[in-house]
């Protein structure tokens, strides 16, 4: 884990993100969940099914950490996609209940882990081997970002600043690791943070608020984020 991202931080962000997501969800009537979201091909129902299935998948990793029994997040990428499609077709009340129940179960399973179990290696859906301490960060990222994606009035600027800075750290490291996009130098206005992304070409300067940079790096709306001389910031490939 990043040196400035402790387990206490990630558990706190997971709890905050869960509250933010479900507080936003409760404001959406069932018919709104049937509408498209900004995520290509997904309605609100797909998004909610994904968040529910993600909690179930992370419960699998918590079980792996607690018992040492290898329990992958998903049996396969195809099964994951099929489960989201099937979940999106559930009655709205059942879908909401699944998401709430899965979130509560994940919180309970993580609370059972001891120090040795938190350190046990598990495997993410992308195939990375990480200590179980990464699980609450993985969940915090899901519920925080998807609270925005719900389209219920939550924006990146409503999320905690320390979480946004940590997420920028995470995304810039991933983008630098794959090297598929443009090289960037990022500067946050109203904050002392600067980041670099390794990639192709000379580094392009990009400026925006913490919230704006997080939206830009994660492939969401980029209001207020600018490139050199006020031009649009470079387009980026998918983050995950």
TrEMBL record:
<dbReference type="InterPro" id="IPR036527">
    <property type="entry name" value="SCP2_sterol-bd_dom_sf"/>
</dbReference>
<dbReference type="GO" id="GO:0016853">
    <property type="term" value="F:isomerase activity"/>
</dbReference>
<dbReference type="InterPro" id="IPR010872">
    <property type="entry name" value="MDMPI_C-term_domain"/>
</dbReference>
<dbReference type="InterPro" id="IPR034660">
    <property type="entry name" value="DinB/YfiT-like"/>
</dbReference>
<feature type="domain" description="Mycothiol-dependent maleylpyruvate isomerase metal-binding">
    <location>
        <begin position="17"/>
        <end position="150"/>
    </location>
</feature>
<protein>
    <submittedName>
        <fullName>Maleylpyruvate isomerase family mycothiol-dependent enzyme</fullName>
    </submittedName>
</protein>
<dbReference type="Pfam" id="PF07398">
    <property type="entry name" value="MDMPI_C"/>
</dbReference>
<dbReference type="InterPro" id="IPR024344">
    <property type="entry name" value="MDMPI_metal-binding"/>
</dbReference>
<dbReference type="InterPro" id="IPR017517">
    <property type="entry name" value="Maleyloyr_isom"/>
</dbReference>
<keyword id="KW-0413">Isomerase</keyword>
<dbReference type="Pfam" id="PF11716">
    <property type="entry name" value="MDMPI_N"/>
</dbReference>
<feature type="region of interest" description="Disordered">
    <location>
        <begin position="221"/>
        <end position="240"/>
    </location>
</feature>
<feature type="domain" description="MDMPI C-terminal">
    <location>
        <begin position="158"/>
        <end position="231"/>
    </location>
</feature>
């Amino acid at each position: 884990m990043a040196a400035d991202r402790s387990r206490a931080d990630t558990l706190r962000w997971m709890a905050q993100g869960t509250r933010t997501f479900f507080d936003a969800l409760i404001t959406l009537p069932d018919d709104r969940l049937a509408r498209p979201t900004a995520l290509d091909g997904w309605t609100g129902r797909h998004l909610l099914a994904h968040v529910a299935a993600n909690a179930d998948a992370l419960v699998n990793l918590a079980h792996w950490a607690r018992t040492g029994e290898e329990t992958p997040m998903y049996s396969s990428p195809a099964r994951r996609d099929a489960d989201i499609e099937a979940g999106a077709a559930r009655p709205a009340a059942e879908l909401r209940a699944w998401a709430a129940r899965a979130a509560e179960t994940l919180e309970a399973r993580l609370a059972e882990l001891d120090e040795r179990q938190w350190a046990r290696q598990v495997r993410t859906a992308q195939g990375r081997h990480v200590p179980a301490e990464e699980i609450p960060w993985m969940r915090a990222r899901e519920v925080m970002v998807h609270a925005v994606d719900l389209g219920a009035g939550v924006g990146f600027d409503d999320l905690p600043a320390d979480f946004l800075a940590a997420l920028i750290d995470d995304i810039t490291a991933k983008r630098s690791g794959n090297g598929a996009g443009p090289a960037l130098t990022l500067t946050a206005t109203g904050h002392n943070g600067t980041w670099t992304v390794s990639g192709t070409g000379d580094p392009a300067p990009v400026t925006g608020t913490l919230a704006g940079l997080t939206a830009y790096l994660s492939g969401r709306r980029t209001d207020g984020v600018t490139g050199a001389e006020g031009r649009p910031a470079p387009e980026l490939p998918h983050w995950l």
